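Full entry
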Amino acid sequence: TNQKQWENCAGTLLKDVAFQGKAEISWARLGNSLQDQFISATRQKRDLCTRSLSCYDMSYISCRFFNSRAVVTQKEYEKFWFWYGKCLQVLRYQRHICQLWLKGLIYGFMTRHDVHAALNGQKPGTFVIRFSESHPGLFGLAYISQDTPPRLKHYLVKPTDTAAAKITLPDFLKDKPQFSRVLMLRPHPSGKPHFEIRTKNEVFSSFYSNRDQAVDGDGYEPLG
């Protein structure tokens, strides 16, 4: 199954499992099915799950797509999947992205209000990675600029920035001095989102491509 086929098939399968032919179901039922699918799509095991959808992720989805109602319809689901399916496909297939999610380096589901709260008072160069709300499957980088005075800015990572996946997201970040310190999501006893501030190279260096490796005069590279 290629990536596009997977997105379509996964959306149909989730709808069939959750709705079972009904026009509407409870949000709780859809949420349970979403969680099962997410764990499978990110290649985790339920009994050894590093990072599933949190209660805050679920709240984001419920509020944004279903107006926090107790009952959801198939029509609402279709609109939701058009956005969410592309995000899930990126997590499943795009190089490094799932590992970045599992490590808390991608926050993911975050409103602009949440972004403002998380970055309020942070130093210039501090950033957080989330899924773009207006461009399904793409990432938005919210960061504190080097301007005087510093201000919160938003940047959309476009396909051209990563040369159609030939350059990874970590490589893109490596080359951009605007991004120096990332908000890394960490577990917290309260269950609420908790961030640690880490330098970019500290947490992303293991994902960088070795693009500066020397090349022999005849064009061959040594084995690494």
In short: The first strand starts at residue 24 and ends at 26. Residues 29 and 180 are 41 Å apart (CA to CA). Residues 213-217 have pLDDT under 50 and may be disordered. DSSP finds eight helices and seven strands in the chain.
